[in-house]
Amino acid sequence: MSGQVRCSVADGLAWVTLAHAGKFNAMSRAMWRQLKAVFTALQADTGLRGAVVAGEGGHFCAGGDIAEYPDFRFDEAQLRDFHENDVWGGLQAMLACDLPLIAQIEGNCMGAGVEIASCCDIRVAGQGARFGAPIARLGFPMAPREAQLVAREAGVATAREMLLEAAVVAADEMRARGFLNAVLPDAEVAAHVQTRAQRMARLAPQAARLNKQTLRALCAGNEPMDAVVAGAYRYADSAEHHEGIDAFLAKRQPVF
Question: Which of 36, 129, 211, 243 could form a disulfide with 171 if both were Cys (CB 3.0 to 4.6 A apart)?
Fold first, then answer.
């Protein structure tokens, strides 16, 4: 069994689960491709309000499935295809998704797990969660696009520590460094994430998607502000915009 990326939908929220029994949800090639397919489908579903990404069995993701590596890692063309198409294809689909994404992080969050968490907007972890990318012990570096992603989200100093020292960082320290939004006792993480996701789902979905698009364009740093501003106010006459303002003035809860 090469693992699965499962997705279920309830009350406007998608629940994406990384599942690879016996391997702390390590990502296989098949799982990377499934990740891309799942988030491509979520992006196209206009009825959704947000998504939660979690691991099965008390762990988020322990990295890549090393058992597969001898099949392709020693050939340059195959290695490039793996990172540029399988891995980056999955991560790019997450980054391109306009839904607000919450990472529910428990246990091991290593290598691929840090990369997947880096694609999420809100990151919540249990106190027992551990973060790292100790791939130097395996004799290879992090792929360029993946390293850029981790350095941007976790910080360059943290990326250097993880990659050059094979350091493993505790959840509280990752919170102090700005990577995590909250750290809770392990037993409280799932309930806390569910509460946050439900609160998110009650907010204006169009506004959330537009905020994601704006932040993506600005954080990428390669799109001129004039280009971002050009289409920024097209929502002016939208039903959601009217409803939000009308509800406030009428002193009632908006219905989005």
Answer: 129
